[in-house]
Amino acid sequence: MEFLALGEFIKYVFTGAAVGFAVGLTGVGGGSLMTPMLIMFHFPPHIAIGTDLIYAAGTKASGVFAHAKQATINWSIVLRLGMGSIPASLITIYFLKNIFGSPEQYQEILLTTLGIMLVLTALVILFKPLLNRSFALSEREFTKLKRYQAPLTVLMGALLGVAVTLTSVGAGAFGAAILMTLYPRLSPVTIIGTDIAHAVPLTLIAGLGHMQLGNVDFMLLSCLLIGSLPAIHFGSRMSKRVPSHILQAVLATLLLVIGFKYALFS
């Protein structure tokens, strides 16, 4: 294992702290911020994505315990999502390993898919208030939706499984948007809790798959966790004093620009 120079160690700890603080302050998913930042630091996309997946699993795990204690997780929905996402993630890893062979052969796919997911995530953040108002269904419409909820949830889980495995983005804001659409009568806190409870096993399975491919930098991962874990807590406490909706809009616009860059020019 290679050890980092002191300057690099400090840089990556501060990177973890900056992303962790932003996540705590705004609620914007860490993957959509961390992966592009690591690529900007000239880490290869497969290393940035693989490392970020393990990072995401570690940082989100404490959120599952908190929501479980508050009974704000719908475990039946988590199971449905997982029935689609976990097999899809494993199949995606299989294809990366056996169809493409080397990271250089699938780098363009990773970057293009990352760009698309960043754009989708940015749009979800920007239009979240509109989404919240758009799904006030009548009793008849809700009854009709319930008929298809289970298969649609498994299908959306499968799409998330592929997207998250290829990009490390989507398990947060995009996953929550899916839940808001399919389960419009879930409370906001239950949507968040259920989304996090599904994100942890998905990012862990996808991250372990990337680890098998050699796509995880453990020294980098350690630095990011050292910086981010206390910063997330600090950002969460500060969020009550800062107009986070303004920061969300700024971050979403930034993600939109980066997303278009990767999607169109990778």
Briefly say what this structure is.
By secondary structure, the chain is an all-alpha fold.
- What value does the Rg take, in angstroms? 18 Å
Shape verdict: globular
Order of helices and strands: HHHHHHHHHHH
Please count the beta strands (DSSP E, at least 2 residues each).
Answer: 0
Low-confidence residue ranges: none
For the largest beta-sheet, the strand count, sense and barrel status come to: none
Strand content: under 5%
Helices and strands: which structural class? mainly alpha
How many domain modules?
Answer: 1
The percent of residues in helical segments reads over 70%
Q: How many helical stretches?
A: 11
Overall mean confidence score, pLDDT? 86
The CA-CA distance between the termini, in Å, is: 30 Å
Topology of helices and strands:
Blueprint: H1 6-26, H2 30-40, H3 45-69, H4 75-100, H5 103-126, H6 128-134, H7 139-167, H8 173-182, H9 188-212, H10 218-238, H11 244-265
Helix pairs in contact: 1-2, 1-10, 2-3, 3-9, 3-10, 4-7, 4-9, 5-11, 7-8, 8-9
What does this structure look like?
The chain has 266 residues and is an all-alpha fold. It has one domain (7-265). It is built from eleven helices and no strands. It has helices spanning 6-26, 30-40, 45-69, 75-100, 103-126, 128-134, 139-167, 173-182, 188-212, 218-238, 244-265. The longest helix is centred in the middle third of the chain and has 29 residues, at 139-167. The chain starts with 5 loop residues before the first helix and ends with a helix.
